[in-house]
TrEMBL record:
This is Futalosine hydrolase. Residues 246-268 have a biased composition (Low complexity). The lineage of its organism: Bacteria, Bacillati, Actinomycetota, Actinomycetes, Kitasatosporales. Residues 7-232 form the Nucleoside phosphorylase domain. The keyword Hydrolase applies. The gene is mqnB. Catalyzes the hydrolysis of futalosine (FL) to dehypoxanthine futalosine (DHFL) and hypoxanthine, a step in the biosynthesis of menaquinone (MK, vitamin K2). InterPro entries: FL_hydrolase_MqnB, Nucleoside_phosphorylase_d, Nucleoside_phosphorylase_sf. Pathway: Quinol/quinone metabolism; menaquinone biosynthesis. HAMAP family: MqnB. It catalyses: futalosine + H2O = dehypoxanthine futalosine + hypoxanthine.
């Protein structure tokens, strides 16, 4: 890692990227060095939320879903490594659905684990078998514990698991099923696990930071608070500062699911 920590922040859409870059209040890098154009037209914007003494945030809107997020993250990490200036941390960031009773609208959540919640197969009894259950791979990446604590302390975020789904939940039954399988889950989004897979392949630690815009469950667009969530995301990144410095030798690591052995309560 360079003397000034470089953090790759990966969002899905430009509105989320704009919310992250707004944390710097215009304190970005001007000129050609302030924007990197990657293959496929991906653009990375560089901002300095803490001034010259704080971390450098390179913000990328990689696209919606785990595949686009993973591909965009891998592209940015590879470009940085080839340039001899690799990233020290990757953050999957944006808005998310919050599980009722666990993460209310407007709350900020930080991942203890990034979980692929629907990567697997339906069982004959109607249940779900993860790829780990099937013996094909892993579904969980854990964030560095010290970094999670530091980010939560700086932002007031809730700490727990963030689920990655390829199809956003739209029914109460599906929300209850996910909450039952993942008692530590605070929120669901669509990119975190893809970002984590790319980070792990490059040996870089990963974190997911989300602001809750809607409840997980029946789709009620009238109840969504996207603007408020984007504002909360901006404030969270503004508060982070030196907290976005990973622990030494803590790359992203896939782990076995731990939902059945974790306590059900959520901590702040």
């Amino acid at each position: 890692m360079t003397a000034t920590p470089r953090v790759l922040v990966v969002t899905a859409v430009p509105a989320e990227a704009d919310a992250v870059t707004a944390c710097a209040g215009g304190a970005g890098v001007q000129g050609p060095a302030g924007e990197l154009v990657l293959p496929a037209g991906l653009r990375v914007r560089r901002v300095l939320p803490g001034g010259a003494s704080g971390p450098v945030l390179d913000v990328l809107a990689a696209g919606v879903g785990p595949a686009a997020a993973g591909a965009g993250t891998a592209t940015a990490l590879t470009a940085a490594a080839l340039a001899g200036d690799p990233y020290g941390l990757v953050v999957s960031a944006g808005i998310a659905g919050g599980f009722p009773g666990r993460a209310p609208l407007g709350a900020v959540v930080v991942s203890e684990a990034l979980v692929a919640a629907d990567l697997g197969a339906q069982a004959l009894d109607g249940g779900f078998l993860s790829v780990t259950d099937l013996g094909f791979g892993h579904t969980v990446h854990r964030a560095p514990e010290g970094l999670v604590r530091a980010v939560a302390a700086a932002t007031g975020a809730l700490t727990g698991d963030v689920l990655t789904v390829a199809t956003a939940t739209g029914t109460a039954a599906r929300a209850a099923e996910l909450a039952g399988r993942h008692p530590r889950a605070l929120a669901e989004a669509m990119e975190g696990f893809g970002v984590a897979e790319a980070a792990a392949a490059h040996g870089v630690p990963v974190l997911e930071l989300r602001a809750v815009s809607n409840a997980v469950g029946p789709r009620d667009r009238a109840a969504w608070r996207i603007g408020d969530a984007l504002a909360a995301l901006t404030e969270a990144f503004r508060a982070l500062g030196p907290a976005l410095v990973p622990e030494p030798n803590q790359p992203a690591q896939p782990t076995q699911p731990t939902q059945s052995t974790r306590p059900t309560e959520v901590t702040r």
